[in-house]
Amino acid sequence: MTRPVLYIGNKNYSSWSMRPWLALKWGGIAFDEKLIRLGGEGYGRSQIKEVREVSPSGRVPALHVGDAVIYESLAICEWAAEQAPSLWPADTLARAEARAASSEMHAGFFALREAMSCNIRRRLDAEPEWRGNVRADLEQLFDLWRRSLTKHGGPFLFGQISIADAMYAPVCTRLRTYKVTVPDFAQRYCDTIFADAAFREWERAGEAEDFSIDQTEALYR
């Protein structure tokens, strides 16, 4: 059987591509990656021609395993965990909690994600004034991290590195990019993510990319 192929977007911007990429790396699963430049015609409408050729949703990431196409980030992570069960906590209740936290990231934090578009190489000089739903999302995020880190002892959300950390790793980069004031425990968690070898590999590639997406770069310019 040929190696799985993970189609991803720009590493500087594509937070949803980062998540399963990290899970596959952490699970020790061999795969090939193919990067499709986002932006341009069809961007934001799931109509980029090169993406639609490999993903029926018109979005990346998409994992090709033989003739199967898994075209959603959390589903790719779940497939990875079936190959490498250590990607979820061993304890059944901790595993359920990790899945709940992962699903909350997958389906929530809309205001935070809209206000803080992923941009790994960018650093704002000053933190914007967050209001309303963005502030509520930050409070919800820090409460989730505090509960998980306290209960499971850190340094990762559920003790050992897991899919939950893959889901929240891009959030750590957003907090750094937008100079968000964070509690000490949250900064320690983000520093743990930033020190991870797989994350650093992705980060270096994102910083080295020689192209940009104007819509994202215009945010808080």
In short, what is this structure?
The protein is of the alpha+beta class and 221 residues long.
How does this model look, in words?
It is a single chain. This protein is of the alpha+beta class and 221 residues long. It has 2 domains: 5-84, Glutaredoxin; 86-204, Glutathione S-transferase Yfyf (Class Pi), Chain A, domain 2 (Up-down Bundle), CATH 1.20.1050. The chain contains 10 helices and 4 strands, in the order E-H-E-H-E-E-H-H-H-H-H-H-H-H. The chain has helices spanning 15-26, 49-52, 73-83, 92-107, 110-115, 132-152, 163-177, 184-195, 197-208, 214-217; strands spanning 5-8, 32-35, 62-65, 68-70. It has a 4-stranded mixed beta sheet with strand order 2-1-3-4. It is globular, with a radius of gyration of 17 Å.
SSE string, helix = H, strand = E? EHEHEEHHHHHHHH
Number of helices: 10
Please state the structural category: alpha+beta
Most strands sheet: 4 strands, mixed
Write the CATH fold name of the largest domain: Glutathione S-transferase Yfyf (Class Pi), Chain A, domain 2
CATH class of the largest domain: Mainly Alpha
- Unreliable residue stretches: none
Fraction of residues in helix: 40-55%
Return Rg in Å: 17 Å
Measured between the Cα atoms of the first and last residue, the distance is 48 Å
Keywords:
221 residues, Glutaredoxin, 4-stranded mixed beta sheet, Glutathione S-transferase Yfyf (Class Pi), Chain A, domain 2, 51% helix, alpha+beta, 10 helices
Fold topology:
Elements lengths: L4 E4 L6 H12 L5 E4 L13 H4 L9 E4 L2 E3 L2 H11 L8 H16 L2 H6 L16 H21 L10 H15 L6 H12 L1 H12 L5 H4 L4
Parallel strand pairs: 1-2
Antiparallel strand pairs: 1-3, 3-4
